[in-house]
Amino acid sequence: MKEYIRIGFKDPKQLVRARSMTRKQLLAYFALLTFILTFSMTSVLTNVMTNLQEDGSEIAETIPPFTIENNQLIAEEDQESYVHQTNSFLLFFDPNGAIQTEEIDTNLERLNVPIGIGLMQDEFYLNVTGQTIPVSYEQLDGVDQDRFIDLLSQIGSLSPLVILLMFIVAYLASGFVLLYEWLIVALFANILVTLLRLRSPFKKNARMALVSLSIPTLLLSIIEAFGYIVPFAFELKLGFTIYFLFTSLKTLVPVKKNNNDQ
Q: Which spans are transmembrane here (predicted)?
């Protein structure tokens, strides 16, 4: 296994040797690359949760006094409707019935904000990444300003259990992403074998394809872990892996000797 790790991360020209991997080594290598992807995804999720917590606290500071009673939002008589926007939230506080849910959806899409909250005159509206979450004032009966602020303040809190669940979800998601990328690269590896007129079954090509993903996966994961978004990340990863596969497979092409008649 150590030999294949060395090849994958230090000497991709020797990828042809990865064709000898056992099934157990193949699964272990897949788990290793998934683990690398998971750290990147977990870092991104942690940043998102932290931003949610900060934005939730910011919105909580602007909430005026109110109470939800008898399926109605009860606020002070002179309270005007208003909208508060952060990077993560778009809050509509409307005790006067001046705002419609369609207006919330339109602004969420236009401003590219993931979460929309509508405290409206006779309706509570919650939209998360384009999906409406069914929550009614009947379920929130008795909720007032203080309780709502507590709820907002808890959004994005990172307890050890939440971090563990995030890691598990990220690991599973990373596994599916890696499986998809592996399949695409394996197909390209098979095409290269055909073009170079080599004899190598798909199973062996797939082993090479998995190991060829090592360097691109590590580099992109490190960059994304610091919060940077890499444009065309998959295309870049695919380009590197095809290059590594081509340079390694080329070493198997027999050298033709020209016999000149004297």
A: 26-45, 155-173, 210-230
